[in-house]
Amino acid sequence: MLGHLPFFINPDAQNALIIGFGIGITASAVAEHDVGQIDCIEICPGVKDAAKFFSTFNNDVIQNPKINFIGGDGRNYILLTNKKYDIISCDPTHPTLGCNNLYTKEYFQLCKSILNENGVMCQFLPLHKLSLNEFKILIKTFSSVFPHTTVWLAHSHGILVATDHELDIDFTILRNNLQNLQDDILFDPYLFTISLLCDEDATNRFTKGATINTDNNPYLEFFTPNSIKRENWDINLSALIKFRIDPQKIITNIDDKDKLNRYLIAQKYFLNGLICKNRGDIRNLIESFKMALKINPENVETKIFLENELRQLHMLHPSY
Fold first, then answer.
1. What DSSP character marks residue 210?
2. Is residue 122 located within the same domain as residue 187?
3. Contacts (Cβ under 8 Å, ≥6 apart) of 21
4. Cα(301)–Cα(290) distance, rounded to whole angstroms?
5. 225 with 269, same domain?
6. Rounded CA gap, 195 and 183, in Å?
7. Which of 105, 150, 170, 300 falls 20 to 30 Å from 187 in CA-CA distance?
8. How far is it, in rounded angstroms, from Cα 275 to Cα 281?
9. What is the CATH number of the domain that holds 169?
10. Sheet holding 67-71, edge to edge
């Protein structure tokens, strides 16, 4: 979703910058769109050679002529480059793993300085291994640089999206753009719509009073044992969901509002299932997914998740 989301906001983007290649999933998603060049900065150049082992997942993206793979430090590249970009997608590792400098106010300011007019900035937002206070610090730091911040949910993690204007997405255009994707899940414009959680006002209310993470005050560089508690994932998600907005505040011209309502109601059970999974409560996980599917049988994603969980459960307990 980190790769697709910015193009639904700025479908006319001509170039893109990706910070962090990993196994190439985000780069593969970006390459599906009609964009000229994709600069991808990766501090560990060896992953370029490893990408071929994940070709099933990344569509052999390293061979795509759009990709310009650059080995090096992402922040230094942004500091030194003369290029400007229509889209920046940042997918670094978790801040507690030694890359806090990709989550500071100064870093986000550098990113903002190389965005073109109408550019879009997307940032990976971890829900795990952060206390609620640290989680708010991360979001507050981003939104302090990008006032027009929205928060989106991609199951196990969130996505911070920034534009230079208040976001407004036309559902009809969104649906047409989604039809061009070869994806069994993302083709559903209603599923995409309900992944929106917070607009800029809700984001500001959620992070009110939070501290800013800076180079000189790197709060996210250091953490206590409380940060790595397993339950932090669902604590952060549950807290964020309380501030969710009606997606129609941003995504307009939705033609079937009853259908949207079914998706929203079913999503509550789906998210509860994810929380149960994080807690190791498999029985309630299955029941929550079943209820979500009963309310909204059109949601292919829920069906896939339920089938996967039942398959794993049957492998562990054949009699189930």
1. P
2. yes
3. 27, 40, 41, 42, 47, 48, 51, 69
4. 12
5. no
6. 16
7. 150
8. 9
9. 3.40.50.150
10. 67-71, 37-42, 15-19, 85-90, 115-126, 157-163, 148-154, 196-198
**Are 142 and 273 part of one and the same domain?**
no
100 with 192, same domain: the answer is yes
Task: Quote the domain boundaries for residue 201.
Answer: 5-241
Whole-structure pTM value? 0.93
Distance (Å, whole) CA 237 – CA 194: 15
Q: Which of 75, 82, 68 is nearest to 36 (CA)?
A: 68
Asked if 73 and 202 sit in the same domain, the reply is yes
Q: Give the closest residue to 123 by CA, choosing from 161, 157, 74.
A: 161
Are 37 and 183 found together in one domain? yes
Based on the domain organization, do 219 and 267 belong to the same domain? no
pLDDT tens digits, residue range 92-137? 888 888 899 999 999 999 999 999 999 999 999 999 999 999 999 9
Quick check: is 251 in a domain?
no
